[in-house]
Amino acid sequence: RNLIECPVPVIAAVNGPAAGAGLVTVGPVRAGATLTSRATRISADGIPGDPGGREATAGTFSRFAADVGTGGTPSDGVISLAHQYSAPGLLGASGAGLEGAFGEGEVRADVIDEQAGLPAVASSRMELNFRVEGGPVGYKVGAAVGATGGGTVSVLLAPAGEPDSPVARPVDVAVVGAGNGSDALGRTIDETGFLAPGDYVFRVSADAADAPEGDPEGRAYFTFNFQLTDTGGVGSPGGGAGGPPTAIPLPSAGLTGGGMLGLLAVRRLVRTGRRRP
């Protein structure tokens, strides 16, 4: 009675143990990718006076930019050079929040003076290993690649260790130099799709070797832009990402808080009504 006639609103009066029920909201588990490892290497071999060759490598997640070799001018009758600029797009240094990568590279190899005695070989490669979690992510691979003479270039996106797996249709493109005095071969890549949760590899490589006499210089190049995006649950039968928060009912323990307030309000109205003349 004292509770009903109290002049101020009362949420609850407890004399002993009490339990209530309600709803809590849990936000969606966002799909995303984490970069687990990165391997970058450029090298140039066959340079006169430098039998060990020249190279530059990177295993960190930061930007890489380097050139090795002779440069565009022959050194003692040999051209052997490799170049690469590449950078993963990350939200943090730990590799979390991988949003893709972009870069460009070029290799050249040619022995102009056959008396140089060493075959010229050059390479520029970048490999990213990453893990998709929380649901599917969308991917987009845009690239321009080309090769001539003894040059080859390739772009690969596939499940790690399973380049032919049906889990995700691999992006696997290779261009081999034409040789025989032909013009350079080139093509553009524009691929999109979805990656289910799992481990993946994205690899870009260009290699060049001195072509037989009379063939064009061995040369290959690539420019790429690789993107990963949360699909909001699109791309897999079960969703798994995005969507509105989910309401999870807590276990009921007797009368709910909302029911108690409603009951008190009804009783107070009834009591007030009885007092009216």
Low-confidence stretches: 21-27, 236-276
Order of helices and strands: EEEEEEEEEEEEEEH
- Biggest sheet strand order reads 3-2-7-12-9-10
Q: How many strand units?
A: 14
Q: Give the overall form.
A: elongated
Give the N-terminus to C-terminus distance in angstroms: 20 Å
* Helicity level: under 10%
Beta fraction: over 45%
Oligomeric status: single chain
Number of helices: 1
The main sheet comes to:
6 strands, antiparallel
Instruction: State mean pLDDT (0 to 100 scale).
Output: 75
Structural class call reads mainly beta
Radius of gyration based on Cα positions: 32 Å
Secondary structure: elements and pairs:
Layout: E1 23-26, E2 32-45, E3 54-58, E4 64-69, E5 78-89, E6 100-111, E7 121-133, E8 137-148, E9 150-159, E10 171-176, E11 185-195, E12 198-209, E13 218-230, E14 246-249, H1 257-275
Antiparallel strand pairs: 1-14, 2-3, 2-7, 4-5, 5-6, 6-13, 7-12, 8-11, 8-13, 9-10, 9-12
Describe the protein.
The chain is mainly beta and 277 residues long. It has 1 helix and 14 strands. The strands form 3 sheets. It has a 6-stranded antiparallel β-sheet with strand order 3-2-7-12-9-10, with no helix packed on it. A 6-stranded antiparallel β-sheet has the order 4-5-6-13-8-11, with no helix packed on it. It has a two-stranded antiparallel sheet with strand order 1-14. The two termini are 20 Å apart.
